[in-house]
Design goal:
With 208 residues, the chain is α+β, with helices and mostly antiparallel strands. Helices cover 49% and strands 13% of the residues.
Length: 208
């Protein structure tokens, strides 16, 4: 209810394009129902250099997809339920993930005040092909965790006045032990890259 009240009347579902009022449906008992749900959209990483470095850091994931970030999008309850509806008819699919475009493609028919008609076969195909996104999400979490550790080490070393060469040596050893990166050139390039990525972002509104 809070999400419904907080959503402006001008909102439309980014999948089916129905308005806030058009997503409502009347039950057989004459009661109106419908809702707005949160959808996690995995935004693909498209930078080839970033992908190469992350593959070197985490070679044990499936690595069919690479996620740059995760964005929360509000969709109607009918669109949000597409994956669950398909999986309910085919339990072999496991956890369903569909991108916004996948959902749009799977809509055979949609209209105001009624449920969607789905292309079940296409939805099943998309869910199957998207299964690798779960491994990609774990890889993103592992990468973000690594950046947090690098950031904490940088802060700790900075406070203790430790020489930069010791910082780099310690990080290179971490890469060798925890990530299996043996090549010295790869270690050097990755340390430089991680230090840049791990640097805290400037505080908004602080121009110095």
């Amino acid at each position: 209810m809070k999400r419904w009240l907080a959503t402006p009347e001008s909102w439309t579902c980014p999948v089916c394009s129905r308005s806030k009022r058009e997503i409502l449906r009347k039950s057989n008992k004459g009661k109106w129902s419908g809702g707005i749900r949160e959808h996690r959209e995995f935004i693909d990483e498209v930078d080839a250099d970033v992908i190469d470095r992350r593959r070197l850091l985490f070679p044990d994931f499936r690595n069919e997809y690479w996620i740059a970030t995760v964005r929360t999008v509000h969709v109607c309850s009918d669109c949000s339920a597409i994956g669950a509806q398909v999986v309910q008819g085919d339990r072999s699919l496991g956890d369903a993930y569909l991108k916004l475009q996948d959902m749009r493609d799977c809509l055979s028919e949609c209209g105001p005040y009624r449920s969607h008609v789905l292309d079940i076969d296409l939805a099943r195909q998309r869910i199957t092909s998207n299964d690798a996104y779960w491994s990609a999400r774990e890889a993103l979490s592992a990468f973000e965790s690594t950046l947090v550790k690098v950031r904490h080490k940088m802060e700790w070393w900075s406070k203790d006045g430790i020489d930069r060469s010791e910082i780099i040596a310690d990080l290179r050893e971490d890469l060798r032990v925890y990530h299996g990166v043996e090549d010295a050139i790869d270690q050097e390039a990755l340390v430089k890259w991680l230090l840049e990525r791990g640097r805290p972002s400037p505080v908004a509104g602080n121009d110095g």
